[in-house]
């Protein structure tokens, strides 16, 4: 998505050779009009796969998932939780994920009420780096016997290998902007 | 908002006399079409206050904030963070908030890049109970010298006193559904 690549070049900041900071429109402040444009693009790519539900993970995936839902005719969004609130008393599917940017490990949780056999799941997230969160969400779908019909990150850092791991599982992976490498404070797209 | 009250009665579950679980459409699964209806209602209520920015807190506030932004002509959304990722290296406004449902204390953080004097801020959140998160967000706006032009929660539990504390500060508080009391597993609206 050309507009996203341009926005990353204009508004993003590189921290070292692996971290891209896009707090200006995606991870802290949200450019909602642009989110909706990303949602339209996701619908264009994944409409043919006929998703019935979107799965993401809190927090930064929520905005993209919501825009994609709208563009796909308001299919439900489910966001995996990283902590268990006192209200989460029912059975959950769980999978561990290590955050690359936060350096922390989380147990992702999805209530068994919201994912089941027969669901055709489009997984979306803000970033795809080493694929930790992505693989955890796929594992949760497998536990629920739901079918993963596609995976997209707004920004994929291909050199960190996550997309290759997801494709090995036979999943259609198509991200909106694919970074080939980052070095000397610059981003190079595929 | 009548439709929200009906949805709470239909899909919500009471846990004790103070906790309302609405994971079905707001806190775990998102009914995005309904989010957009809530966003339209927020725009109707707060348009006259001419907000230039929406402030919320991750995670469940994000979806409502995004829908409200769209309905208000795509004004920027900023979500306060509860943890500091490794990318958050700049100066922040901070305030402590204790979560009623999670029983945990968090330091809410907003980068100084995204809130400043001259901003007219509409604060939105999923719940307003004792007002801990709300008052923390107001404090963050005060630190930034930004003006709080309104406050709305999707669901206000009036008996827990948060709305009164915010009104004492001279803030226009208008929530979408106002619960008077909860007892014996039932919700009673104002």
Topology:
Two copies of one chain form a homodimer.
Chain A: H1 2-11, E1 13-15, E2 19-21, H2 23-27, E3 29-30, H3 32-46, E4 53-57, H4 61-71, E5 77-80, E6 92-98, E7 105-111, E8 120-128, H5 132-143, E9 147-157, H6 162-168, E10 177-183, E11 186-189
Parallel strand pairs in A: 4-5, 4-8, 8-9, 9-10
Antiparallel strand pairs in A: 1-2, 6-7, 10-11
Helix pairs in contact in A: 3-4
Task: Write a structural description.
The structure is a homodimer of 190-residue chains. By secondary structure, chain A is an alpha/beta fold. Chain A has a single domain (2-82, 92-189), classed as Rossmann fold. The first copy, chain A, is built from six helices and eleven strands. In chain A, the strands form three sheets. In chain A, strands 5-4-8-9-10-11 form a six-stranded mixed beta sheet, with helices on both faces. In chain A, a hairpin with a 3-residue loop joins β1 (13-15) and β2. In chain A, α3 (32-46) packs across α4 (61-71). Chain A is globular and about 45 Å long. The model of chain A has no long low-confidence stretch (mean pLDDT 95). At the A-B interface, α2, β3, α3, α4 and β5 of A face α2, β3, α3, α4 and β5 of B.
């Amino acid at each position: 998505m050309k507009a996203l690549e341009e926005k990353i070049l204009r508004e993003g900041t590189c921290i070292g050779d692996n971290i891209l900071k896009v707090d200006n429109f995606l991870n802290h402040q949200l450019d909602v009009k642009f989110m909706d444009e990303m949602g339209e693009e996701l619908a264009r790519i994944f409409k043919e796969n006929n998703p019935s539900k979107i799965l993401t993970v809190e927090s930064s995936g929520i905005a993209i998932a919501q825009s994609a839902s709208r563009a796909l005719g308001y299919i439900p969004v489910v966001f995996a939780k990283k902590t268990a609130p006192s209200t989460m008393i029912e059975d959950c599917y769980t999978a561990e994920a290590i955050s690359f940017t936060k350096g922390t490990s989380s147990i992702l949780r999805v209530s068994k009420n919201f994912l089941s056999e027969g669901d055709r799941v489009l997984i979306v997230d803000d970033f795809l780096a080493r694929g930790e969160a992505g693989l955890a969400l796929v594992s949760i779908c497998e536990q629920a016997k739901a079918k993963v019909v596609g995976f997209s990150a707004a920004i994929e850092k291909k050199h960190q290998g996550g997309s290759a791991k997801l494709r090995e599982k036979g999943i259609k992976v198509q991200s909106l902007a694919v970074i080939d490498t980052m070095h000397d404070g610059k981003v190079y797209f595929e």
